[in-house]
Amino acid sequence: MKLEIGRIYIKDIQLGQETSVKEGVLTVDKEGLIAKLKEDERIKDVSLDVAKPGEKVRIIPVKDVIEPRVKIEGGNNGFPGVTSKQAQCGEGKTNVLYGAAVVTVGDVVGFQEGVIDMWGEGAKWTPFSKTYNLTVDISVVDGLTPHAHEETVRIAGLKAAEFVGLAGKDVTPDEVITYEMGSIFEETAKYPNLPKVLYAEMMITQGLLHDTYIYGVNAQTILPALLHPNEELDNAVISGNCVAACDKITTYQHQNNSVIEDLYAQHGKEINFLGCIMVPEHTTLAGKLRVSDYVLKLAKMLGADAVVISEEGYGNPDSDLLMICKKCEKAGIITQLITDECAGRDGMSQPLADTAQEAVAVVSGGNVSHVVTLPPADKIIGNAAAIAVLAGGWDGALLEDGTLMCELNAVIGSTSEIGFHNVTCRLY
Amino acid sequence: MSDKYKVLYYVNQFFGQVGGEDKAGMAPEYRGEKIGPALGFEGLLNKNGEVVGTIICGDNYFNENKEKALDFILGTIKDIAPDVFVAGPAFNAGRYGVACGEISKAVAEKLNIPVVTGMYMENPGLDICKEVAYVVRTSDSAGGMRKALPIMAQIADKLAKGIEVGPPEEEGYIPRGMRKTIFVEKRGSQRAVEMLLARLKGQPFTTEMPMPVFDIVEPAPAIKDLSKATIALCTSGGIVPEGNPDHIQSASAQKWGKYDIAGRDALNAPDFYTTHGGYDPVYANEIPDRVAPLDILREFEKEGYIGKVYDFFYTTTGTGTSVSKAKEFGTQIGAELKAAGVDGVILTST
Amino acid sequence: MVKEIERYGIPIVHMATITTISESVGANRIVPTVAIPHPVGNPQLNADDEHALRKALVKKALDGLATEISQPTHFE
């Protein structure tokens, strides 16, 4: 499979009358996009805005972040199986508005959206302070069920990314990155002496606001599935998640999965990268046992020497992570884990809900309960009062002058468990 | 007055040059001078700080009259109001170590003054204070004094000046057990790949998260006669009365709630709902008893299978809640249940 | 929480779905439940069946409290 990602560097963003990229400036046709999104009768109102790196802007509550892209060759444009007809992802050419992001905002049903600060202290904690963000604030018609509400906002974000992405259709990319890997047999013949490494990506699939979709299929319903890494890098996987903002994998992070990128970088040099197993995190013990057995079985069938396992969320998924680890290590397959920690606001608590002596190589994305103080913003996109009900926020977290005190829990992407950010914990 | 910061020192009778074992019964005394290790300590502060005095107490006296000794010592420290308090080092001396540990803990927690001490890894005083004081790792005997003092002085200097103390391996103290969130140069996925490559090549690597160790509690004895027993219902599933009157957090809970359920047959919607942010709330909000089964317990109560359902139900959210918070909640709730004469507890988790 | 309450000598039964976690953290009396979002219930069943299931689960928990144990025990 061969995928060429063409990066068009975006250096500024504005709302206007047309959708285009000219000399790095992304212009979004405001009325056109609103009209497009309102085709969905469940949407009552759409409010668009932009937020640029360095501006004293706070976006809250954030549901998802999506990278705008356009398919140039092969497959289908958009998100196959969701916003467009089914097609094979991971082949051909895709242009990416590199440095731009669509950020969906708005009260969904629950309490677990997050915050993005574009400047200062808050900007350090989230990778999405460095992107030129188009914010899409969606309110829905009355009487929608929670499930329908979440779906409406999810689809609207994807459609907006697709709409904006079209601006890159006829633009020559600044940089082209090629992701190419043959069949496992071909690659193993090429690199017979390199250790074979799999990536097991755990995904939250626990119901309302907690689901991940692969080609539109709710991953709650699947057995662990083998993906070519290119598929995930090419819009096959999307987030339907509003779990803790700090470590959920947004759609953007699926599109740019850092574990895949960093394993790819070593493919043919230090390792033979076999592919990705998409692992659902279930809410039943039987589900967790089945999934961990299945991952081990796939690893054995593929002859893996090592598996990198990344978690999504915390609490009960810690158990899945360690179950997979234990079973693989006992079978002689080396594991490398990536997770984050619930060590309490003072950092003095146990970092995980479960434990396993086999877990000897673990990367930590930081403590989700680490408290940060974010100074007042000049402008708020969304609704600052929402912090009181977000995971990691608490009543009183919004001080009168607009200062926000919250746990990293509430900051999008801060403790990424796919290692998308550069935060960790150290024993002091 | 000089503009140097103030250090107050604590030693036992031996290092205070009062005497050996025969003087171990001496009551604490304050001397407005530098005695024993305090003398050399000031020289290590590079003229930035001054040791204003030394408290001396006999090891036996302290251990046999802990409260009295602490009262005097804390009172003295409060009056002098040092910028840093230094105790020991105690090396592997058990009674001295416990004294240093207890005093360090009290000073750090009650007076909020930063504390530096020094101990050997196996000193029983270590666990008393290592979470709140900086305990420098020393050898097991006083021969390690010359090595320990400069390290202690360097930490004391930073604490007095309000400079952040670095990681334990750099600064020389025993880890306090705190998971500190920091920025590093490389992103997590790259660190993971590098760790994996090291492991594959058989090279040394260091995990970023040693696995937690959980202690064990002996099972409590069984209820002899269920039909006479009072059973309490607890949940970490975040079921709260409408409006969440105590504002229990949806994740990373900082508190628990206690609600009167006497005269209630069930935790019906919409009087109750879940504020838990970690799972799909639809089913719990439909029938909150699916998480906390008061209705079924009432049935068993009516049938006489159990004596009584306790009049209050306890609740919090489990998701993202630290183990130490959960411990604290358990200790508080357990104390109440014990006092109320509850015979057994059902705790449900989501 | 379970352990701290048990430290007072009060028997406590943990009704939890992910019993592997209960075991790791040191619960002694454990009743495996249905699923995380509805531990003591199953919305897929009809009202009568769900009630029967719920009653059976709670009975196991109560009987667990009345059973002497010397080590972590599942009541299934």
Give a verbal description of the structure.
The complex is a heterotrimer of chains A (428), B (350) and C (76). By secondary structure, chain A is an alpha/beta fold. Chain A has helices at residues 30-37, 120-125, 146-165, 184-190, 229-233, 251-255, 258-266, 285-301, 316-330, and strands at residues 2-9, 12-16, 20-22, 25-29, 43-51, 57-66, 69-73, 92-98, 100-105, 114-117, 132-140, 175-180, 196-204, 210-214, 217-218, 225-227, 237-241, 272-281, 306-310, 334-341, 362-367, 371-374, 379-382, 404-407, 423-427. In chain A, strands 5, 6, 9, 10, 11 and 23 form a six-stranded mixed β-sheet that branches. In chain A, helix 8 packs parallel to helix 9. Chain A is globular and about 55 Å long. Chain A starts with a strand and ends with a strand. In chain B, the strands form three sheets. Chain B has a six-stranded mixed β-sheet with strand order 2-3-1-4-5-6, sandwiched between helices. In chain B, helix 3 (66-80) packs across helix 4. Chain B is elongated, with a radius of gyration of 27 Å. Helices cover 41% and strands 14% of the residues of chain C. Chain C contains three helices and three strands, in the order αβαβαβ. In chain C, strand 2, helix 3 and strand 3 form a beta-alpha-beta unit. Chain C is globular. Classes of the chains: A alpha/beta (428), B alpha/beta (350), C alpha/beta (76). Chains in contact: A-B, A-C, B-C. At the A-B interface, helix 7, strand 19, strand 20, strand 21 and strand 25 of A face strand 7, helix 8 and helix 11 of B.
Which terms would index this structure?
heterotrimer; B: 350 residues; alpha/beta; Rossmann fold; six-stranded mixed beta sheet; 11 helices; 13 strands; elongated; C: 76 residues; three-stranded parallel beta sheet; 3 strands; 41% helix
Q: In angstroms, what separates the terminal alpha carbons of chain C?
A: 22 Å
**What is the percentage of strand-forming residues of chain A?**
25-35%
Q: Look at the helices and sheets of chain C and give the structural class.
A: alpha/beta
Distance between the termini of chain A: 46 Å
Overall average pLDDT of chain A = 94
